[in-house]
Write the structure tokens for this entry.
Amino acid sequence: MAENENPIRFGIMGCAEIARKVSRAIHISPNAAVVAVASRSADKAKQFAVQNKLSPNVNLYGSYKELLDDPLVDAVYMPLPTSLHVKWAVMAAQKGKHLLLEKPTAVDVKVFDEMLDSCEANGVQFMDASMWYHHPRTGKMKELLSDPELFGRVRAIHSSSSYYGGPQFLENNIRVKPELDSLGALGDAGWYCIGAIMWTMNQKLPTTVTAIPTTVLNSSGVILTCTASLHWTAEEEEEQTVATFYCSFIAHETMGLSVCGSKGTLFVEDFIIPFEESCAGFRFSSGAKFVDMHVGWNSKPREIEVANEFPQEAMMIGEFSRLVKGVRDRGLRPDSTWARTSRVTQVVMDAVKSSIDGGYKAVYL
């Protein structure tokens, strides 16, 4: 990342718990700085600033609109409830503020496209805040998965993201309130699962998406647990590709990804948040076979570790800020790669929800 010269000046819109982590990431990143914080009350913004040891020069606002009117702010990080994204994301884009948006991006792709159209019309950079894409481990995994000699063709994928919220969470958290985050576990945890699957498939949409009839809903109809399968068909292929995922608010912590190819396999247990901040690992095997009489294997999976200079959230801020600097300082067009990545994830998430609502029938894309 570039040195801290004319850093991208961030405004944080909303003081959700995740904003603490991103505030720290902005502080760590050499090309970014927090210059403003807004909440629904000035007192809450002040509490956030104190709690996170922000500079006394940071502007604190009791409304989101005030932050968007601040001429010092280049970009906004927006960790608001999903139902509020479209209003404030569109307004941010209209004010010329580059947008780092928490996931899930929107309640459906129609709303997502409204936000994205506003970003494109106003020449601002868009990225969703899925941090794991930016860890150097992710690049190393992609390198191996893309090697036709070591891995071959992708045949099967499984991802999971779950955690046990507990009674207080399941009663009061915004993620289980239909007026705030109506997608529940599918939007919060399933976003990662779908994103990992689509990342593995190079963002190629599946042919069909089918939810499995094991969905658990709360009394308000918000998803607490769901499972789905995705299928890719191609006439020239000897075998189809299939993916499954599981997401839940009522199961033990998981954040795993496994990919099986025609020549290799990859396993990672902590793809969303690494077990350690300074390095992350995964297992990879290629050409594994049973030995004579099937009493063992000819090789064990390689344990691969990838060190990182900055936490993955700081890498995300660094990449986003680099793109914004290109727009702000060099007159470049925003990079649409991250918007396309988010949109594909949103399309598949919509299809899972449609399958659930339609009695678990297959949805064709």
User: Anything to note?
Assistant: The CA atoms of residues 24 and 52 lie 8 Å apart. The mean pLDDT is 96. The two ends are 38 Å apart (CA to CA). The first helix runs from residue 17 to 28.
